[in-house]
């Protein structure tokens, strides 16, 4: 049996009762987080662009997009919804051994939303959870297995291109594809995957690319692949196998087959999912946490700060010191901007990127006080195989007192999880309603969801 077929069979045969209760709960938190992020970003400029793109790329269909009652073709809606979920860079991730490995929820939840709208049958909650479990599990194993060496990472890497495979699986399982059709959908998703582009984001020629993180293209490719397979299109049946396989297509120089199929269905990679405290690139998270800790411990106000020195790895110093971000995306990848947002105690989320925040004189003054230098030890951690984005922050008070904090691993990973209550509170800000029911096992096991999933109910309300 090929590896490709083994994963397709796993997705087709998976039952909710096969998944441990704690893993099911973790999966519900990912759904909740993604929908919360989508609604929180639904009124942003980027969301408006995403909806316009959906109308242009597929203006007639059954699928809806955050913030609009218009209907679109499923691939176009998946593109737009993934882009919106990721718009604030507050959406989930995967973190294994310190490495951040994409934003799966944005692509996979967007694919699920498209499939639910397109479905000709009622989709009970248990089927939605099972489809997403299959997609997340395969997605997380795949990205872990195809990680390149440190040298190859410096040449070519894509943040979320592989999520096209997971998106195709989610859509296909919700649509109740048979094994053959799902197999072709996976092969087609690989063919439609966009090229790895992390190193070509306009780091030195801002503004940054609009399609950062690759999540929208991955969602579109996966859903388009599933739709084509449904029409009888043939895809590669061994795309994950051999020396010329998908990992080669994505620019890697190695592939851990055992990381794909070892203990499949027993050891759950869903559990490696991570959540973000800050609406910014994960590489900034340790510096932001250090800043927040210093403020909490000292009680210093922003106007009392004289200087902020960050000792960190080279990429942050060379590519993330934008002092004049042109838009919210640039700001999400700006160390001075995000540190200033923390120093001003802006609530994490959309408030960081409002017009008033972006033009705030107080924030702009704080940005000028941020300086970053390369720390050899932290650079070695980041440039090595572990890619651990650590930071040391030194804040000087106007009276001359300096307080220092250091953090090696971003909060939100399995190694340093955020509390469930924090994830729920974050989602509540976006959805604007009590979300406790999302974690109720009885609700998902019953017919409560009927023809619309919980994702649909919240989105349409």
Describe this protein with a few key phrases.
alpha+beta, 3-stranded antiparallel beta sheet, single chain, 4-stranded mixed beta sheet, 60s Ribosomal Protein L30, Chain: A, 2-methylcitrate dehydratase PrpD
Q: What value does the average pLDDT take?
A: 93
| CATH architecture title of the largest domain | Orthogonal Bundle
What is the count of β-strands? 7
List the helices and strands in order.
Answer: HHHHEEHHHHHHHHEHEHHHHHEHEEHHH
Rg measurement, Å: 21 Å
CATH class placement of the largest domain = Mainly Alpha
In the predicted model, the low-confidence regions spanning at least 5 consecutive residues are 448-454
The number of distinct helices, counting runs of at least 4 residues, comes to 22
Q: What's the domain count?
A: 2
Distance between the termini: 46 Å
Q: In what order do the strands lie side by side in the largest sheet?
A: 5-4-6-7
CATH superfamily of the largest domain: 2-methylcitrate dehydratase PrpD
Biggest beta sheet summary: 4 strands, mixed
Fold-level CATH name of the largest domain: 2-methylcitrate dehydratase PrpD
Indicate the overall shape. Answer: globular
